[in-house]
Every structure is written in C-alpha cells, then in structure tokens.
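Box 3.1 A note on notation
Throughout this textbook, protein chains are presented in two layers. The first layer is the amino acid sequence; the second is a token string describing backbone geometry. Keep the layers aligned when reading.
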Amino acid sequence: MRSFPTSSPENALLAAILSELMWRRVPARAELGRIAGLSETEAGERLKALERMGAVVVDLAGNLLAAYPLSAVPTLHVVDLGGAAPWANCAIDALAVPAMAGRPGTIRSRCAHCDAGVTVDVEGPRITGARPETAVVAYGGLAHCIDRPSLEGRCPYINFFCDLAHARAWKRPGGWQGRLLSLAEAVELALERFDPIIEIFRHSPVAPQA
C-alpha cells in the first residue's frame, strides 16, 4: 500500500523530484541533494525512505523510474500544461497532475483497446472537455501483484478507453480486478488519492510554474 511522506526533508526531496519530472528532467542520485537543499548523505537516506513508502520507484541500478504521479520514462499519458508536458504513470495519475501543477491541463492518451487517441481537458476537480466525449477509465490491477510497486501491478492496467463498449471489450490480463469509471468519477478518485502529494508539491518552494 502506498503511503506519503510526513517529514519536512522527505517532503522537500519528493517535491524537488516532481519539479524536475514536470519538465521531463530525470535527476541522478548525485543531484538529489542539490535540488532539494539537502546534503548528499541525507538525500540518499530520504530517497530510501520514499522508496519504502512507495512514493518513488527506482530500478536495480538506482535510476529513478517514477515519483507518483509522474513518470521518469515515456508513457501513454502526456499531460500538456501549456508549457511543461510531463509523463504520468497511468490514467488516474494523469488526472491528478493539473491540480498538482495548479493550472488547467490537457491529457493526451490512447484507448487501451483500439489505440485511438483520447484527449481529456482537466481543471482541478472538473473535466472541462473530452474527445471522444464518451471516454471512460478502467481502474484496477493484478490481484497477485498486490505486494509489488503500483508501477508494476496497477499502472499498466489503469487506462483510458473510447467508451464503455471498448472498455468492456478490452482483453484483460489474467488476475485483473477493478472497475470502470466515468471521467468525473476518475478525476474525483485521482484527487482523493493524491491530495497529500498535491499539497506537498504546491506548498513547496521548489515547485515550478508549469
């Protein structure tokens, strides 16, 4: 289960990482102290704490893969903020990014069934437009991956679809459990899940103007 940081140094490091990922910059471990205003030793310790919480994911070589809700590698879900255009880990993560950035955003993704483009306009808690208007979100994951990072067991299976028919026709992987959400339901869930991260980021002195 993902948890969120509560100490000021961890907040500072997470906000600094998200600030870099907002512009598709992936900080190396050696840079973390500098961007967060911490010593290199403390930054390393705080990064390990964030990993244990599930707030960030790194690979076996120690390279950053994600700091929820943003991805350090290209994904299907791009959030256009009118300047920055970060990658999000999944559809729900993408819907939280405009609120985190404090400005309207346009999510550009693809239907997980037919690969057609899906575009969603978001302003805080409101869906202000969608193309197609019938777009929905499948929210769930693999039951047998519950102890793994969300990046492995959930994010690949939380996607947009053109409509309910495509979501229902989608060939689910074995062990998938979840439900289908309207866009309004999905953005409400996104803001509920990411409220602590949104607050950490928006009140951080390192948060950029996206």
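The domain at 8-72+195-202 is CATH 1.10.10.10 (Arc Repressor Mutant, subunit A). Residues 183-202 form the longest helix (20 residues).
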